[in-house]
Design brief:
Elements: E1 2-6, H1 13-24, E2 28-30, H2 31-40, H3 44-53, H4 61-72, E3 81-84, H5 90-102, E4 109-114, H6 117-126, E5 127-130, E6 136-138, E7 157-158, H7 165-179, H8 181-188, E8 192-196, H9 201-212
Parallel strand pairs: 1-3, 1-4, 2-3, 4-8
Antiparallel strand pairs: 5-6, 5-7
This protein binds BIS(adenosine)-5'-pentaphosphate and magnesium ion.
Length: 216
């Protein structure tokens, strides 16, 4: 099973991708998480990516594509994967398609988690993220058992640098300009599925499992 999660920043791609990965036992691959891990570890890639991320801009395609293609060629990806935050531009989608074609493979579904912009800024200010294991919480919707501490790995939870309201506005603008065209791209290929991302996250997940059900 090879799935792409589409949706605006904060639509719930990561939340849903983790649940899909657990249920269907495939790796959850988030380019954002990979960049944040590199920033935390002070790698060259992290230093470069941070310049763009802190401004709400996209990391250049050359960097992002290389990292993603390396990751999906790892042995744990032979059974499939959920991509969260990739592709984010038409050129990224084309590179992925070409790489899959070369091994006679394809993406099964691109799932668009649809949430209007008004809901997004509110959600982001309440998000708390774990930089160690990638888990995501929300101070109202998904509070951790102990404030500021990750339920999954016990490390500290943070407000992401790019979740400040002015940066969120910029990320939304970049999304509409560069990423939203992917909806048409995958729709034209007949693999786009849209779910309402404004309802409770378990109901969003139920919609997604209805789509993926036959692939279990
Ligand atoms: P990335 O980490 O991918 O961020 P994003 O797309 O902006 O998305 P988020 O992670 O902010 O949101 P999400 O949709 O995962 O929502 P979540 O589940 O956390 O990318 C960050 C940056 O890295 C980019 O800006 C860019 O610079 C760079 N980058 C990454 N990939 C790149 C690429 N391919 N090319 C170029 N640059 C790239 O949910 C949000 C909050 O809402 C949480 O608190 C959650 O608990 C809550 N929530 C979730 N679902 C619900 C619900 N149904 N109801 C109520 N609350 C909910
Ligand atoms: Mg995410």
């Amino acid at each position: 099973m090879k799935i792409i999660m589409l949706g605006a920043p904060g639509a719930g791609k990561g939340t849903q991708a983790k649940m899909i990965a657990d249920k269907y036992d495939v790796p959850h691959i988030s380019t954002g998480d990979i960049f944040r891990a590199n920033i935390k570890n002070g790698t060259e890639l992290g230093v470069e990516a941070k310049k763009y991320m802190d401004q709400g801009m996209l990391v250049p395609d050359e960097l992002t594509v290389k990292i993603l293609l390396d990751r999906v060629s790892q042995p744990d990806c032979t059974k499939g994967y959920v991509l969260d935050g990739f592709p984010r531009t038409i050129p990224q989608a084309e590179v992925l398609e070409k790489a899959l074609n070369e091994i006679n493979d394809h993406i099964d579904y691109a799932i668009d988690v649809n949430v209007p912009d008004e809901n997004i800024v509110r959600r982001m200010s309440g998000r708390r993220a774990c930089l160690s294991c990638g888990a995501t919480f929300h101070i109202v919707h998904v509070p951790p058992k102990t404030e500021g501490i990750c339920d999954r790995c016990g490390k500290e939870l943070i407000l992401r640098d790019d979740d400040k309201p002015e940066t969120v506005e910029k990320r939304l603008a970049v999304y509409h300009e560069q990423t939203q065209p992917l909806i048409e791209f995958y729709s034209a290929k007949g693999i786009l599925r849209t779910v309402d991302g404004t309802v409770d996250m378990m109901d969003v997940f139920e919609e997604i499992t209805k789509i993926l059900g036959e692939m279990a």
